[in-house]
Design brief:
Length: 88
């Protein structure tokens, strides 16, 4: 499977690393592509780094969570997809 883990902190890197160990394709989301922690992780773990577009885009991801929770509550299961696209 393909996974995206948002955040380059200890928890994000640990989750992403374990998913890679299990054979999954993993992209680690960072506020910038040249984040030294993210670049180090991608080099060591053969993963990829996704530029989340700075703080404004990162905040947009945080705003996405309430939508997901609402849909989960409405449907009663998490078997749905939501695609987020950047305008422009």
């Amino acid at each position: 499977m393909r996974y995206a883990v948002l955040g380059t902190g200890e928890v994000g890197r640990t989750l992403a690393g374990r998913l890679l160990e299990l054979g999954h394709e993993v992209t680690l989301g960072s506020r910038s592509r040249d984040n030294p922690v993210a670049v180090e992780w991608a080099t060591a773990a053969a993963g990829r780094v996704l530029n989340q577009g700075g703080i404004r885009a990162a905040r947009a991801v945080e705003m996405h969570l309430p939508l997901w929770i609402t849909l989960f509550g409405r449907f009663g299961y998490a078997d749905f997809n939501i695609e987020v696209r950047q305008a422009g």
